[in-house]
Write a structure and sequence with these properties.
The structure holds 2 protein chains of 2 kinds.
Chain A (H helix, E strand, L loop, with lengths): L2 E6 L8 H11 L4 E7 L21 E6 L4 H15 L5 E6 L3 H12 L4 E6 L7 H11 L6 H4 L6 H8 L2 H14 L1 H19 L2 E4 L2 H7 L12 E3 L21 E6 L9 H13 L7 E6 L4 H9 L6 E5 L3 H10 L2 E5 L15 H9 L2 E5 L5 H9 L2 E4 L3 H14 L8 H5 L3 H16 L2
Parallel strand pairs in A: 1-2, 1-4, 2-3, 4-5, 5-6, 6-7, 8-9, 8-11, 9-10, 11-12, 12-13
Helix pairs in contact in A: 1-17, 2-3, 3-8, 4-8, 10-15
Chain B lengths: L3 E7 L6 H8 L3 H4 L2 E8 L5 H11 L4 E6 L3 H12 L4 E4 L5 E2 L4 H10 L4 E10 L4 E5 L9 E2 L5 H6 L1 H4 L5 E4 H8 L10 H12 L2 E14 L14 H14 L7 H23 L6 H17 L1 H6 L2 H11 L4 H14 L1
Parallel strand pairs in B: 1-2, 1-4, 2-3, 6-10
Antiparallel strand pairs in B: 4-9, 5-10, 6-7, 6-9, 8-10
Helix pairs in contact in B: 8-9, 9-10, 9-11, 10-11, 11-14
Classes of the chains: A alpha/beta, B alpha/beta.
Chain lengths: 436, 336
């Protein structure tokens, strides 16, 4: 059986959805794989309470590099491959981070004939996430009008502040960091161009992302070697039966990482509005959040006294998270709001496919059009709302007070995202690449 | 008799129309009083299919008109023509209504006598994640004559208080002045709608709550892709409004209100040109000729507005003297 060398910084039992996506895909493939990953991942964070033996794949061997930095990981990865070159028929690099591609780039330079599959989790160039950070960093706080608009100050005092060492030091730090975002962007762009030009196969997880990757005219010729391979769910990982709950509340669950960019603010604003109209709300509905929540969101919950309706559950294992999803009436999906930057959402969250696998109803807060929203409309089982708190409020009200039900799941469509089906498509790509 | 006709002009909004209809149908007790008219303006997506799905569920309250594409104005015209409610209001298909107040609103309309009912508007701005409330400041309990609208209201927030989104109007009255209706294939006809309402109405009342959820965040939305792109339409609407001021059959207060509208719109119109980094030759010619037209025919409105001042700015900034070329060059560089 042919064997691939997979380069993936994240892999179970590490705490990452990217790693889990890779695991589900490889486990169900007919090929054998060695996964070059990292030893000191936050082991078992996701799986500390669950049965880890479920996350083992017979056709996959994990080779963890014992290193802390990405740079060292790249070096060790290349060295490992040099020693075992003969064992592998092809390589597969999976971002993020981009260092996975960097190892593959170095291998390709050493062995130009090696077949290379490059798989992109999220886009690494023109990403709204990096644009948002860059824009924030480039705002010069020292020429902002507000800084000088202090009517109560004399000219001398203004000058004194203007020339003060503290201000000069701050200015120096700002100047130093100002281009940080664009430097990262340039580095990513260089890697992206190389990968697109030199990899034999490019894999994206949705069509929006694929189109986004080829916005640059100089790369358009390489589009032909691209494939779309969506994330997948593994039916074997879910608990067999749904446990019954003690209360009659409608339950919503969110599982995964939230931060300042992808946040739950609009949802919390909507819940606040619901609570203003219904003092008894906590007896009718519950929202549970597992995984990271930004401090701003936590403050919003506390400031508005929403903790009786919204519960923060902390970190849980992946298998536990699947159980929680299955037990809930609704699973919440939240995409970052990039309305001012892109028209459609180019990200496909892996948790969406896990929600589909559980056949739990999905309440999606996202761009109206985008990778996730299109899938929900196609598969059924969910409702897509925008980031407007009043839009969210409308449909939460319909769910809580009117028993709103989304279009039922289309089983045939939903099963298209099972890991066996997606892995079969990967096998076909690999067969073609290897001339099988 | 139906109490309220809701005209929903819809063009390729299959992903939004559901929210609009769901909000209108949220309060079951008032559905029987509604005459919802979805006007599919030649959509190429499933807008019509979606609307018809709702029509089948509520055949007594929803009707669907399908027509060739003719723009927002033409869809409103088609809807007004068939409206059967005592009152009529326009709800764009990507917007929706406030479900908390809609029931009370329809019940109040049932007994209402005023020609115009003004309600608040809540704007949902997705690009900066903000929600803004536009509230009518001077609330009145009983209908009052239009002529008594206070100057303060006219000065402060005219556009927000009297907009297509804030006004509900007696259908019968509106039809009296509707004529050929709104301009077809033209943007900014909402201003024309406001003028038409004031042509026909004698009294108005303000309800102390919000009804309209105005959504800004759709990629195709005209507000998002640059005002200058549709400036010709803005000019057409302005010219139409100016022309109506010479109609001697219209009431005196109409002139007072529409003149405020024109003055504000002129400011916006000129600023759209002034805010450009570079102004193409044809656009320069366009604003010059419009400026000449205004000074010649409507100097009273022209000099009341910001137009002369902004036009001076346009002339100086976009003139082709060496100094201006240099200024533009450096301005362009700093933009980059």
């Amino acid at each position: 059986m042919k064997k691939g060398f997979v380069i993936s910084w994240y892999y179970p039992p590490g705490n990452s959805s990217e790693g889990l996506v890779t695991y589900k895909l490889l486990k169900n493939s007919k090929y054998k794989y060695d996964v070059w990953t990292r030893k000191n991942q936050q082991q078992n964070v996701w799986d500390r309470k669950s049965k880890e033996d479920k996350l083992i794949a017979e056709n996959v061997k994990i080779i963890p590099g014992d290193c802390e930095s990405e740079k060292e990981w790249v070096k060790q990865g290349v060295q490992y491959f040099l020693k075992h070159r003969d064992e592998y028929d092809f390589i597969m690099s999976r971002s993020m981070p981009v260092e996975s591609h960097e190892i593959a780039m170095k291998i390709k330079e050493l062995f130009p004939d090696i077949k290379w599959i490059a798989s992109f989790g999220d886009p690494i160039v023109n990403t709204p996430y990096i644009d948002a950070i860059t824009m924030e960093k480039q705002k010069n706080p020292f020429i902002m009008r507000e800084y000088f608009k202090r009517e109560d100050m004399s000219v001398m005092k203004t000058l004194k502040i203007f020339l003060s060492p503290a201000r000069q030091a701050k200015k120096y730090l700002w100047k130093r960091d100002k281009h940080c975002g664009s430097k990262v962007a340039r580095y990513f762009s260089k890697i992206n161009d190389y990968v697109i030009k030199n990899a034999n196969v490019l894999i994206y997880n949705n069509s929006y992302q694929l189109e986004h990757a080829f916005l640059d005219d100089k790369l358009k010729d390489y589009k032909e070697k691209s494939y779309i391979l969506e994330h997948s769910f593994d039916p074997g990982l879910y608990s067999a039966k749904k446990e019954s709950r003690a209360d009659n509340k409608i339950s919503f669950v969110y599982v995964g990482h939230l931060d300042d960019t992808r946040n739950a603010r609009s949802l919390f604003k909507a819940i606040k509005k619901l609570k203003e109209h219904d003092k008894d709300l906590n007896n009718k509905v519950s929202f549970k959040f597992y995984g990271n929540l930004s401090n701003w969101d936590k403050l919003l919950l506390l400031d508005n006294d929403l903790t009786d309706v919204v519960e923060i559950g902390g970190d849980i294992g992946y298998l536990d998270s699947l159980r929680k999803i299955k037990e809930s009436d609704w699973a919440i999906l939240i995409d970052a709001n990039f309305t001012s930057m892109v028209d459609n959402c180019i990200y496909l969250p892996a948790k969406l496919i896990d929600y589909i696998g559980a056949r739990t109803k999905i309440f999606s807060i996202s761009h109206v059009k985008g990778a996730g929203s299109d899938i929900i409309r196609e598969v059924g089982g969910g409702k897509v709302v925008t980031h407007s708190p009043d839009d969210i409020y409308l449909y939460l009200s319909k769910i809580i007070y009117q028993g709103f039900e989304p279009k039922p799941y289309d089983e045939k469509c939903a099963n298209r995202y099972s890991s066996k089906t997606i892995a079969k498509r990967l096998d076909e790509i690999e067969d073609k690449l290897l001339g099988e | 008799m139906k109490v309220l006709s809701v005209v929903i002009p819809a063009y390729n909004t299959e992903l939004y129309l559901e929210r609009c209809l769901d909000s209108l149908l949220y309060n079951e007790s008032v559905i029987q009083y509604l005459d919802i008219i979805v006007v599919d303006d030649g959509s190429s997506d499933d807008t019509s299919k979606l609307a018809n799905r709702y029509r089948k569920l509520y055949p007594e309250s929803i009707s669907v008109l399908e027509k060739e594409n003719g723009g927002h104005g033409s869809a409103v015209n088609a809807g007004i023509k068939v409206a059967t409610g005592k009152y009529v209001r326009i709800v764009d298909s990507d917007d929706w209504v406030d479900v908390d107040n809609f029931e009370e609103y329809v019940k109040k309309l049932k007994k209402e006598k005023a020609d115009i009912v003004v309600t608040d508007v809540r704007r949902q701005q997705l690009y900066d994640e903000s929600e803004l409330n536009f509230r009518f400041k001077e609330k009145n309990d009983k209908p009052i004559p239009i002529g008594k609208i206070e100057d303060k209201v006219m000065e402060d927030d005219f556009f927000f208080e009297f907009s297509m989104h804030s006004m509900t109007v007696k259908t019968e009255k509106l039809r009296e002045v509707w004529g050929s209706g709104l301009l077809e294939k033209t943007f900014y006809v909402d201003q024309q709608f406001v003028a038409k309402v004031f042509m026909c109405a004698r009294t108005y009342i303000e309800y102390n709550f919000n009804i309209y959820m105005y959504f800004i965040g759709r990629p195709e939305q005209s507000m998002g892709d640059g005002f200058l792109k549709h400036i010709d339409d803005h000019e057409r609407v302005l010219k139409w409004l100016l022309k109506t001021t010479r109609d001697k059959n219209l009431p005196k207060y109409y002139k007072k209100i529409v003149s405020r509208q024109i003055v504000l719109m002129l400011g916006t119109h000129y600023k759209a040109y002034a805010n450009q980094v570079r102004l193409p030759k044809n656009k320069k010619k366009e604003i010059k000729s419009f400026d000449k037209y205004l000074r010649k025919n409507y100097s009273n409105y022209y000099y009341k507005s910001e137009a002369p001042m902004v036009f001076e700015q346009i002339r100086s900034v976009f003139s082709n003297t060496l100094l201006n070329k240099l200024v533009r060059y450096y301005r362009g560089r700093s933009e980059v």
